[in-house]
Design a protein that fits this description.
alpha+beta, six-stranded mixed beta sheet, 12 helices, flat
Length: 426
């Protein structure tokens, strides 16, 4: 017996349950389920709270994960359960009462009429009158002019922030802005555009589902260009594409609905200028490696540091052909600090962007640096090569404040804990 059949048998005999239906892709004839589809269940119960603290779902199969939440202002308990093999089942409990005579009445009173209207499959129906008629698909109104313009303004407030974060190399916040603060109003315009073209009752589904089917083909073909990796040039190009698509949709909607649309000339020019500044710069990737070398000193643990100009830093350098990062780290420490070491393990990798001159212009460098923890074996810091001005041992307590970059300070903080563990066993 499969999980669905077990749930059906359980619900049939449970006194608090009046009906159980399947919704979503496993109930639809249009865009039906595939191998990745969840099983979405709505369970109509006279007492929904008894299921909030119950592990009833364990009777249906081996549980890998389970999570509880409430929806519809906390009136509907929901268990989300993943069973062995990867099937995810959503159990949403919807309140019903003795006065409700049919499933059709219960469906009409529940806050999910748009979901029910797309298709449902009845597993259990214990209502006194048999009626499974689903509610009609609710129509989504087109915006008035004020809502339309406010949506555009929200998008255009977010877009410059995205460009700023891209230029700064702040990947997390750039992604947050482009994926949430910009993508949400873009989807709203895609929906409004489709309904403005085809009528207010035109079905645009939800959350961008099946946008390839209902969206304007001219817009759909552009959507693939909205995704990017963490290269700032790719991010900027995707962000500019998103802005251009958004404004094209806005202008067509304004024409279709007869709304006025400000030109937004200054802000759009600023976004284009700043975004193109990123996309036009060539980008190179560099990989380096170095080490945190330590030894016991008279007054405690000491760390080897090197100075280039006025800046103290950890010894490191660029990987050469045929080297792995550990070999590079050992070689660079020997050359820059004059020390032979024993490598104990990788501390961490840091990543950052910087700009350098490239002919008459600039080049953007995506830098990765691998740092290893190293125990001093032999050598003298006076034997450093010409690439550094000085090499010297410093007390462990001083080095984090000595380095000017947060990345190396974080490496030294991690190294401190590793050194304490290693030193305590030697």
């Amino acid at each position: 017996m499969d999980i669905e059949s077990r749930i059906q048998a359980w619900a049939q005999s449970h006194p608090a349950l009046r009906a159980v239906i399947v919704v979503g892709s496993r109930a639809r004839t249009e865009h039906p389920a595939d191998e990745w589809s969840d099983l979405d269940l709505c369970l109509f119960a006279t007492d929904v709270q008894q299921f909030a603290n119950s592990e009833f779902y364990r009777a249906f199969g081996e549980v890998w994960l389970s999570a509880f939440e409430t929806i519809s202002q906390g009136t509907e308990p929901e268990w989300i359960v993943m069973y062995a093999g990867g099937l995810k089942v959503d159990f949403t409990f919807i309140p019903t009462d003795a006065a409700t005579l049919s499933l059709a009445e219960a469906l009409a009173r529940a806050p999910h009429t748009d979901t029910f209207a797309r298709g449902l499959r009845v597993l259990v129906d214990k209502y006194p009158r048999t009626d499974h008629t689903p509610p009609l698909t609710p129509s989504a109104p087109l915006p008035d002019e004020a809502e339309f313009l406010n949506t555009i303004n929200h998008f255009l407030m977010a877009a410059p922030r995205a460009v700023k974060f891209i230029r700064r190399g702040d990947h997390w916040r750039a992604t947050t802005i482009t994926m949430f603060h910009m993508r949400k109003p873009l989807l709203r315009l895609l929906e409004w555009h489709a309904r403005a073209l085809h009528g207010a009752d035109y079905d645009t589904w939800y959350d961008g589902r099946f946008v390839e089917d209902w969206g304007d083909p001219r817009a759909v073909v552009v959507l693939k260009d909205l995704y990017a990796d963490d290269d700032p040039a790719h991010r900027a190009k995707a962000a500019l594409t998103q802005v251009r698509l958004f404004m094209w949709l806005a202008r067509e909607i304004a024409d279709l609905l007869g709304y006025g649309l400000p030109p937004y000339t200054e802000v759009l020019q600023w976004i284009e200028t700043q975004g193109k500044h990123v996309t036009l710069l060539p980008t190179d990737t560099q990989v380096s490696a170095g080490g945190v070398v330590y030894r016991p000193g008279v007054n405690g643990i000491e760390i080897a540091m090197v100075r280039a100009g006025s800046r103290w830093q950890l010894p490191k350098g660029t990987i050469e052909d045929g080297e792995d990062t550990e070999t590079t780290a050992r070689r660079e420490v020997r050359e820059e600090a004059g020390l032979t070491t024993e490598v104990l393990g990788l501390i961490d990798r840091i990543e950052y962007w910087y700009y350098t001159s490239a002919g008459r212009g600039k080049k953007r460098i995506h830098k990765f640096v691998y740092f290893y923890l190293m125990r001093y074996v032999s050598g003298d810091t006076a034997d450093h090569d010409h690439e550094v001005d000085e090499a010297r041992w410093f007390p462990l307590e001083q080095v984090e404040a000595l380095v000017p970059f947060r990345g190396e300070a974080a490496i030294l903080a991690k190294a401190r804990a590793l050194i304490a563990a290693d030193h305590s066993t030697t």
